[in-house]
Design goal:
Radius of gyration: 14 Å
Mean pLDDT: 96
Order of helices and strands: HHHHH
Helix content: over 70%
Number of domains: 1
Shape: globular
Amino acid sequence: MNTALWIISGLLATAFLFAGLTKLFVPRETLAKAPGGGWALQFSPRFVKTLGALEVLGAIGLILPVLLGIAPILTPLAAVGIAIIMIGAAVVVYRLHEFKHVLVNLLYLALAAFVAAGRFAG
C-alpha cells in the first residue's frame, strides 16, 4: 500500500507542479489557446496565478512532509486540497461542455482521494 501511495503521490505531484508552474509563468491568453484551456479566460489573471501557486504548494505538500517526516499530516491535507481543486475544475469544464477534460479531472480527484485516505489511515 505504501508503494502505491508513493507512486500515485509522485505522479500527482509531477502533474500539479507542471500545471501550477504553467499557470504561474504562462500568460492567461496563451493558456486559453491550449486544448482544454478555454476556462482561463473566464477568470482573472490574479485568480489563475493564485490557482497555480496553490497547485505548486499542493505538489510540494504531497511529497515533502512524509519524505522528511516533518508534519506528515500535511500530506493528506495537501491531497484533500488538490481534490477540492479538481472538483472545481470538473464543474468549470463541465459547464464548458469539455467532457473529456471532466473525466481527466475526476481521475485526478480519485487519485488525490486515494492518497488522502491512505495517508490519513497510515
